[in-house]
Structures are given as C-alpha cells and as structure tokens.
Amino acid sequence: MPNDDPAPAADLVAEWRELLARHAATACALDRELGEHFGLGMSEFEVLERLAEDLDCGGKVRVQELAEKVHLSQSALSRLIGRLEKNGMVERHMCPEDRRGVFVLLSEDGRQRYEQARPLHREVLRRTLTARQVTCG
C-alpha cells in the first residue's frame, strides 16, 4: 500500500513541479534561441545531434530507433524528418533488407548546421540548468 504521509508526498510533488518547470524553461529557451540563430527547434537539433553521434556507426539510423532516442512518436518524428529533408539537412533511404524500414542519414548541410548550433545549445543548457529560478519569457 502506498505511503499516505502528506509531508513526503508534498516534497515529491514539489520536486516534480520543479523538474517540470526547469524542463519547460530549458525547452523554451532552446526553441527560441536555436530558432532565432539557426532556424532550428529543440527537437530538430536533437535529431541532428543523434544522427551526428551515429556517424561513427555508419551514419544512418532507423526511424524507429531514432524515435525512441528523441522521445517523439513515429508520426511526429516523420513530420520533423520531412522538414529537415526539405531543408537539405537529412536524407531518407529505404532499408535494402526490409522495404518497410527507413533509414535517416545526416547530410553535409545538416552536419554543418549542427556544428554551428552546438555551442549555442550547450550555452543555453549551461545557463538554464545551472540557474536557480528559470523562466520562459
């Protein structure tokens, strides 16, 4: 049976709310600053980064695996990949062994945009995740 003591429960709720607030503020800052400077949203940057990290492993990732890594549904990720592909930052390829499988590859333009945006991404993380009170305004 769960512990019904209100004091620890209140502490847990307060901790949960602080986590949500920090996540929201960080996500907002990343979207705003990456968008203003590089035309990327937080999720788009995350996809480019995951693909850049996988360059050592052949540079292509199945969409299903990528969806798990970036915490998006496959349909949301598919739309995001479509935007990145339209902007020349990724390429899609069919899996030769399984025609239902789709691989995503980072293009040279995508790699360059990622490399340019990475210092700002890290600065926003440093600034927002080390701040005591963070806001989205």
Describe the structure using short key phrases.
mainly alpha; Arc Repressor Mutant, subunit A; 3 strands; globular; DNA-binding transcription factor activity; MarR/SlyA-like; DNA binding; HTH_MarR-typ; DNA-binding MarR family transcriptional regulator
Helix content: 55-70%
Distance between the termini: 42 Å
What is the gyration radius calculated from CA atoms?
18 Å
Order of helices and strands: HHEHHEEH
- CATH H-tier superfamily: Winged helix-like DNA-binding domain superfamily/Winged helix DNA-binding domain
List segments where confidence is low: pLDDT < 50 over at least 5 consecutive residues. none
* CATH-defined architecture: Orthogonal Bundle
By DSSP (H or I, 4+ residues per run), the number of helices equals 5
- What's the number of structural domains? 1
The biggest beta sheet is recorded as: 3 strands, antiparallel
> Which class best fits the helix and strand makeup?
mainly alpha
The third-level CATH topology is Arc Repressor Mutant, subunit A
Main sheet strand line-up: 1-3-2
CATH level 1 class label: Mainly Alpha
| Total beta-strand segments | 3
Give the overall silhouette. Answer: globular
Mean pLDDT: 88
Beta fraction: 5-15%
